[in-house]
Specification:
Layout (H helix, E strand, L loop, with lengths): L1 H40 L3 H12 L8 H20 L6 H22 L4 H15 L6 H18 L4 H13 L8 H17 L12 H15 L2 H14 L4 H20 L1
Helix pairs in contact: 1-2, 1-3, 2-3, 3-4, 3-5, 4-5, 5-6, 7-8, 7-9, 8-9, 9-10, 9-11, 10-11
């Protein structure tokens, strides 16, 4: 009888604790998303490392683990982006370490749910990052990039982040391998419209990209010498995300230099 009572009590405790655990994982992801955005805004490597470790705690959750994988990979990708701009003798090794970490987690996420379009999208971006430091693997990585991007597009053709990343790729690739700057501009305009219409019903879901679209539009205009349009785009990016460090500390100063040179001429 004592053993029976113990089993019943234990079962009740498990039943009561399951929703609490689910809730704590959700709260961890929501808090982590805020930290991830803040770390990315300010190029804060320590915060990005901290939040990456935070997300790692939730990767084994049955229902939300794919998002923990996704956001841990996102933190690693942001760390790689920061390193890319730094003058560090050990930069490539560290960069590759972060990118491989991102790939591992995104592959884990898409293995768990093959319909996870956001995961396929970020996986394609991670393969693209790796190509920048492993050019001798460009053929194999290019195939992986195209497969992941095609899968994301197949699953979510009107996802604004999918449209955005395809536009960025079209802008940065040489024309000889499929790049097209005019098509890229059309894609950025379409992404901007889709972001305006997007409603993210669950805050755990990915929601990045709106401000990035206007940052990229500003770059296109700046490259074309359309300085007024570039300023409008950068200012719109800061309306969406006032702490967007890339625009505040890199892109706007570049625009101001171009404006000063234009006045001097």
């Amino acid at each position: 009888m004592r053993n029976s009572i113990t089993i019943v009590v234990f079962a009740a405790l498990v039943a009561c604790s399951a929703p609490v655990q689910a809730q704590s994982t959700r709260q961890l992801l929501l808090e982590g998303k805020e930290m991830l955005t803040d770390g990315a805004n300010h190029d804060d490597q320590n915060k990005l490392l901290e939040v990456r470790a935070l997300f790692e705690q939730a990767v084994h959750d049955d229902s939300l683990g794919i998002f923990a994988h996704y956001y841990a990979a996102s933190a690693a990708s942001e760390l790689a982006n920061i390193l890319h701009e730094m003058d560090d003798s050990d930069r490539n090794r560290k960069f590759l370490e972060y990118v491989n970490y991102a790939i591992d987690h995104l592959e884990a996420a898409t293995d768990r749910d093959e319909t996870f379009a956001e995961g396929w999208l970020m996986l394609s971006a991670a393969y693209g990052q790796k190509m920048t430091v492993r050019p001798l693997q460009a053929v194999s990585l290019g195939r992986k990039f195209n497969r992941a991007m095609s899968r994301a597009r197949e699953l979510a053709p009107d996802n604004p982040r999918v449209v955005l990343l395809r536009a960025i790729t079209a802008y940065n690739l040489p024309r000889i391998v499929g790049g097209n700057k005019d098509r890229a501009l059309e894609g950025l305009y379409r992404a901007a419209r889709l972001f305006e219409e997007e409603v993210v019903e669950d805050p755990v879901l990915p929601s990045w990209g709106h401000e990035d679209t206007y940052a990229r539009l500003g770059i296109v205009f700046l490259d074309r010498g359309n300085l007024e349009e570039a300023r409008t785009a950068f200012e719109r990016a800061l309306e969406i995300n006032p702490e967007f460090g890339w625009v505040k500390h890199t892109l706007l100063p570049s625009l101001e230099e171009a404006e000063a040179a234009s006045v001097a001429n």
